[in-house]
Amino acid sequence: MHALSATLWLLFNAHSGITTNTRDTHIKSLLPAQEVANDRRSTLLSRLNQLSQGKEPREICHGCDRPPIQCLCEHLPSTKIKLGTEVICLQHPVEFRRKTISTVPLLKLVLDKCRVIVGRSFDTQLETVIDDACNQGRIPLLLFPGPDAITLEDSDAIDKLRLASQRLLESREGGRSSVKTVEMKADATAGKKFLLIIVDGTWTQAKKMVRFSPELVKRCQTIQFMGTTDRSIYDAIRKQPESFCLSTLESCARTLKLLEPENQLMDEAVEHLHASLRALVRTQIAQERMHINPELIRNCTKLELKRKRQNELEANINIAKTKAMVSTPELVGLDNARDFGDGYILRSLRGSADAEFVDSRWPKSSSKSLRMIERQIEADNKNATKTDCSCCLGIEHEGNLVACILRHRNGSLGILHVDENHRRRGLGEILLREASRAVGHRNQPHFAYIFDGNNQSEALFSKLGWVKSDQNSKKATG
């Protein structure tokens, strides 16, 4: 342990160009206050000792990978949101080290199709990634402003993207036509799938990263969006170069919304992204005001300007809010359904075929249960014509029903089931949440009966806020 600690110190001294004997003198010449130098030195020693002993420097939340006091889990979706666009963030190593104030980790916590690659040059890493995207019919896009960039707000932006995808594919094949190339063009020009590449770093860092990755610009179509008058709330913790500049998260959210304006999950994804960013800014401001002593800061003017920006933003934007206001998607009724991606569609139950599916999955089915279930679905459909929402719901995958929930004629929810091959995807939670919302929309009481010993159902109901009507009730009472 001592040898490891000594090696680290030697590496630090060699890297900094300071010998062990002169290090203290050198620090004193750089820092105005001896107390600050001692504090930083003791902090470094403490961290090195923790690392040498195999200890974690501090406790980390397993949900959001942040310190518990800065936990953002309540602002994140229960399951990552699956959009049509795949996102890759190219992150500068300096930004990667700023974990607590970086917005890139939030993208990975909200979006299902999101990857982060750290480095300064990316031609080698991205060659296979872009090839795979093209083979899947995705159009590779690079969010980077420039004279050749397509402005997404333009009315003909999608048409320009389709033409650009054809040029990229032709250049990839060297002008040679083949069946594979034609198939790729047909998929890519559909304009439904994109590979969005975003560069995360300061403007100076981002320009260097793009300049050192010439194949990135050659293989991708550059895109941009119009300037915005909305001030970034991220400016409260990190000064933006200009008032119209946005953080990486805000830029990504705006681009996704322009690329997939008709995606039903887009509003939910964007709201979760913004809610998590507001929470990050709020917790960071609170920690700074708690731990930063202005008397130990060398540049007090910079700190004063930062506090002024924070006060202005708190006055104009309610970032001190403790709970995110996530927009609620429309209820599912007889005339509409909801696509969750990957072939999963939430819809109302109808007809004898759906009733047979429910009956075949119900452990208590009998010779009379099928007709009972059919009547329950029929009664719910009649109510749905008046209330525009269904309580008897199912989830189908590639045209086949794989999950269901029923509302009995006595008003209770039950027969919640998900086929084994489709479990651990959050389908049961979706069904229970949407059925509960529909019951509430009808202004009717929420209640359900769970068989004794069904611990999985009890855990799911408890997770969504349900409680036992009588905590002291005996077994076999439902």
User: In DSSP terms, counting alpha (H) and pi (I) runs of 4 or more, how many helices?
Assistant: 17
Helical residues, percent: 40-55%
The ordered H/E elements are: HHHEHHEHEEHHEHHEHHHEEHHEEEHH
Give the overall form: globular
- Unreliable segments (pLDDT under 50, ≥5 consecutive)? 1-36, 175-191, 318-327
In short:
This protein is α/β, with parallel strands linked by helices.
Explain the layout of strands and helices.
Elements lengths: L1 H15 L6 H8 L3 H19 L33 E6 L1 H5 L6 H7 L3 E5 L4 H13 L3 E5 L6 E2 L5 H16 L6 H10 L5 E7 L2 H9 L2 H6 L1 E4 L23 H12 L6 H26 L8 H17 L21 E4 L2 E5 L2 H11 L7 H19 L5 E5 L2 E8 L5 E6 L8 H15 L13 H9 L15
Parallel strand pairs: 1-2, 1-5, 3-5, 3-6, 4-6
Antiparallel strand pairs: 7-8, 8-9, 9-10, 10-11
Describe this structure in words.
- There is one protein chain.
- The protein is α/β, with parallel strands linked by helices and 478 residues long.
- It has 3 domains: 2-52, no CATH class; 68-316, no CATH class; 338-463, Gcn5-related N-acetyltransferase (GNAT) (Aminopeptidase).
- Helix content is 45%, strand content 12%.
- The protein has helices at residues 2-16, 23-30, 34-52, 93-97, 104-110, 123-135, 157-172, 179-188, 203-211, 214-219, 248-259, 266-291, 300-316, 351-361, 369-387, 427-441, 455-463, and strands at residues 86-91, 114-118, 139-143, 150-151, 194-200, 221-224, 338-341, 344-348, 393-397, 400-407, 413-418.
- The strands form 2 sheets. It has a 6-stranded parallel beta sheet with strand order 2-1-5-3-6-4.
- Helix 11 runs antiparallel to helix 12 and helix 14 (351-361) crosses helix 15 (369-387).
- It starts with a helix and ends in a 15-residue tail after the last helix.
- The model is unreliable at 1-36, 175-191 and 318-327 (pLDDT under 50).
